[in-house]
């Protein structure tokens, strides 16, 4: 299981925006692209999607740009991923609107996928932008990010 590059970049962009939270100035896609290394066209696409999802506020004109719509501690990783990827669904079984599985009528595992899906989404929702914006702990000279999944 792997996130798309776009979802990964959205997390990187939002973490950078969280590090700037509290400042008076708004950020723009160019600044976020330069700071994160995300290609500018991708950063522009992402800030638009994240703003449409209500995670970023945007303003036009002089002093315009983007900023987080809520404090970093109130925005979680699941929200950021869903803004780009749509609802988190590990299998089509979890998506009530879809019934395209050949085993749909006889699958004995299907009822359990919802439990697994809730656990994964819950783990992602348990990580906030405030946590991701902090410097990673240093272990043996290398920085590592540790996310505990219960």
UniProtKB/TrEMBL annotation:
Domain of life of the source: Bacteria
InterPro entries from the UniProt entry: SUF_FeS_clus_asmbl_reg, TR_Rrf2-type_CS, Tscrpt_reg_Rrf2, WH-like_DNA-bd_sf, WH_DNA-bd_sf
One cellular component (GO) term of this entry: cytosol
GO function term, MF aspect, one: DNA-binding transcription factor activity
Cited Pfam families: Rrf2
SUPFAM superfamilies: Winged helix' DNA-binding domain
Protein's name in the database: Transcriptional regulator, BadM/Rrf2 family
Organism name: Sphingomonas rubra
């Amino acid at each position: 299981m792997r996130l798309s590059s776009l979802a990964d970049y959205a997390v990187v962009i939002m973490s950078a925006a969280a590090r700037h939270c509290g400042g008076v100035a708004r950020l723009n896609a160019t600044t976020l692209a330069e700071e994160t290394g995300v290609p500018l066209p991708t950063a522009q696409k992402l800030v638009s999607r994240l703003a449409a999802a209500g995670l970023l506020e945007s303003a036009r004109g002089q002093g315009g740009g983007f900023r987080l719509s809520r404090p970093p501690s109130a925005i979680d990783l699941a929200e950021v991923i869903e803004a780009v990827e749509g609802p988190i669904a590990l299998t089509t079984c979890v998506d009530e609107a879809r019934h395209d599985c050949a085993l749909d009528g006889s699958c004995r595992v299907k009822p359990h996928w919802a439990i697994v899906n809730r656990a994964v989404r819950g783990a992602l929702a348990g990580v906030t932008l405030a946590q991701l914006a902090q410097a990673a702990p240093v272990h043996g000279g290398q920085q590592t990010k540790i996310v505990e999944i219960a």
